[in-house]
């Protein structure tokens, strides 16, 4: 028997609702096998902060680090809630985990499954993977304020880009592209304006590309990338990009792939020094929280990415096939969160 220590952080809003379904699916797909999940739940997020003033106590982070993987729902309150302004739990909790656990490869696949309606009228073949840099860029937190609150206030958010950080994610993206049939990599930046960071990306991509002569490499400025993503997403296979560009492009990709409720992700520490973390791309959706309106599919597909990462590819494929089967017959009538979970479980039991 193999025991996998899983840290579960359901979080806020719809986080616990979608994670409950992901957990049911995980239990079903592993039932009767020789893999056992040993779960520890960590109650972290906006609610915890409002109740206790704590964001991510050191001891809890250390305990999370002892796990093999992290399943994360979503955190955060209503955007702009003044009670949460000072805490910034997105930075103090979610980004802290991604940064401290060196989740430098943030995988965000975009697949338009058969039967799913895209926001695009004529989407064509949509099956690409965004590899978003996860530990630096404009997210580095290198900024500050001068003369705060005065008419002369100055605010800076400095993008931090290291050759080491860029190279490790670019290398990961080439490896990933090399393992896919199309052998194509698009790197996205804004080298015409962000010339300093752009120069590192350019140099690194060029150097690594030389080691992968079989891969077709393509560059686009991020603004143009949004055009192509909407007009002809089929041109993309693997995209590698900076942390902020990747954030924005993957919400767009979510819409193209049939909605943010289907968009899954994995924050990967490829070195295995720290647990990787798996989470839907969406947030806590306070507008629909507590009403069983959230689609848990993104969380369920994130659990599948987790199983892949843990070397349980067959189980991951079973989940994806069950989701695919459900999506093919789902229709457009709204279903409760748990009903979607039920339907995917039913598909699983048939497989
Ligand atoms: P959001 O992703 O929570 O919601 C955007 C829209 O998508 C909303 O209309 C919501 O109802 C809808 N939506 C999201 N997930 C859905 C699902 N599974 N099924 C159906 N509809 C879904 O983004 P937001 O409103 O900008 O942010 C809300 C809070 O979440 C903020 O506090 C934000 O900081 C936080 N956030 C957290 C994460 C995370 O934990 N990884 C990610 C993004 C945003
Ligand atoms: C995401 C979210 C986060 C990000 C926020 C909540 C910090 O938008 O996971 O896409 O910007 O990375
Ligand atoms: Mn985002």
TrEMBL record:
PROSITE patterns xref list: IDH_IMDH (PS00470)
Record keywords, A-Z: Amino-acid biosynthesis, Branched-chain amino acid biosynthesis, Cytoplasm, Leucine biosynthesis, Magnesium, Manganese, Metal-binding, NAD, Oxidoreductase
Entry binding sites for NAD(+): 283-295
Pfam families on file: Iso_dh
Subcellular location, principal: cytoplasm
The enzyme's E.C. designation: 1.1.1.85
Obligatory cofactor(s): Mg(2+); Mn(2+)
Binding site for Mg(2+): 223, 247, 251
UniProt keyword Cell cycle, yes or no: no
InterPro entries, A to Z: ICDH/IPMDH, IsoCit/isopropylmalate_DH_CS, IsoPropMal-DH-like_dom, LeuB_actb
Subcellular location field: Cytoplasm
Site (Important for catalysis): 139, 190
Gene3D superfamilies: Isopropylmalate Dehydrogenase (3.40.718.10)
Residue span(s) of domain Isopropylmalate dehydrogenase-like: 5-344
Annotated GO MF terms: 3-isopropylmalate dehydrogenase activity
SUPFAM superfamilies: Isocitrate/Isopropylmalate dehydrogenase-like
Family per record: Belongs to the isocitrate and isopropylmalate dehydrogenases family. LeuB type 2 subfamily.
Stated role: Catalyzes the oxidation of 3-carboxy-2-hydroxy-4-methylpentanoate (3-isopropylmalate) to 3-carboxy-4-methyl-2-oxopentanoate. The product decarboxylates to 4-methyl-2 oxopentanoate.
SUBUNIT field: Homodimer.
Protein's name according to its UniProt entry: 3-isopropylmalate dehydrogenase
Organism in which the protein naturally occurs: Leucobacter rhizosphaerae
Phylogenetic classification of the source organism: Bacteria, Bacillati, Actinomycetota, Actinomycetes, Micrococcales
